[in-house]
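S.,

Sequence below, as promised.
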Amino acid sequence: MFVLVSLFIEIAISYWIIRTIGNRIQFISQEAEKIANREFSNVPLAGAYKDELQPIYQFLNKIRESFKEITDNANNVASGNYFVDFVPKSEKDVLGNSLRMMTSSLRKKTQENEKHNWMTNGQNFLNEKLRGDKTESVLAKDVITFLSNYLNANVGAIYLCDDSECSLSVFGKYGFISENRSSERFALNEGLIGQVAAEQKRIFLTDVEEGSLRILSGILDTKPKQILIVPFVFEGKTQGVIELGKLDSFSPSEIEFIESSVQSIGISFNSARARRKIQELLEQTRIQSEELQTQQEELRQMNEELEEQTQVLRQQQEELKVSNEELEEQTHILEMKNKEVELAKSDIEQKQNSWNFLVNINLSFWQTCLMNSELL
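The prediction came back faster than expected:
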C-alpha cells in the first residue's frame, strides 16, 4: 500500500513538473514567437523559478531590449531624427553596425540637404535684394542688412571703391557706429579694409583687437568674437569690401555662403555703378543740350538782331544811294551852273576889256583933242 501511495505521489509530482515545465516552455515559445513577429511589450519577462529555464528568460529579455533599441532607432529615423547615435553591442553586431552606418549616412545626407536648402534659399533671398534699378547706397544698405540677418551677424558694413579706385568709403551699415570719420574711409592697402581690397583676398579674424569694429547698443559696448572681411570683385576690379562681426563664431557654411555670394554682389554693384555713370552722362548731356539750346536761342536772337541791323543798313544804303544820286545830280547841275557862270564871267571880262579899250581910246582921243585945243 505504501508503495502504491509513493508511486502515485511520484507520478503526481512528475506530472506537475512536466506540466509546469511544459507551460513555461509554451510561454517561452509564445514570447519567442512574438519576438519573431516583432511584437514587443514594455513589461520584461520574469520567471517564477530560478532553474535551468531562467537564463532563457534573461536572454529573451535581452533580445527584446535589443530589438526595442533597434525599433526606437528606426522610429527616430522614420521621424527624421538622425542625430541619435545607435550604439552596437559589439563589433560583431552586424545589424547594429548597419543601423549606425545607415543613421550616420542619413544624418550626413540630411545635413547636406539642409545646408544646400539653406544656401539655395539664401541665394534666392539675396537675389531678391539685388534685383531692381537701385542706387549704390540703397543696394549697400539692403545687402548688408540681409547678410547680417541671414548670417546672424551682430554688426556689419559695406565699403565701396570710388571711381578712381584709390579709396573705399562706407555706403551701408548694420549695428555699426563709427567713432570717427577715419574709420569710414580707407585708401588701398590702408588697414584691413584697404588690404583686402588691394589683395582681393578675405581676412578672417578670431582674435579681435581693441579699437576694431565694435558692437554698440543702449546697454552693450563690446568687440565681436570674430570678424570676416571679404572683397567683391567684377572682371578683376575690386568693387568693394564686406565686413561682418559676430559675438559667437561663424560656421563653415556661413563663410561658404558669403564667399559664394560675392560674385553676384560684385555684378550688382558694377551694374549700379554703370547705371549711375549713365545717369550722370545723361544729366550732363541734358545740361549740355539745354546750354546748347540756350546758345542757339541766343544765336537766333543775335541773328534776328543782325538781320534787323542788316535791314536797317540796307535801307540806309538805299537812302544813301538815293542821296548820292541826288547829290550827283545836284553836282552835275552845279557844274553846269559853274560852267555858265564861267562863261558869263568870261563874257563879262571880254566885255569889260572891250569897254576898257573903248574907254581908253576915248580918253586918248579927248586928251589929244584937249592938247590940240590948248595948243591952238
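The CA atoms of residues 358 and 364 lie 10 Å apart.

Coffee later?
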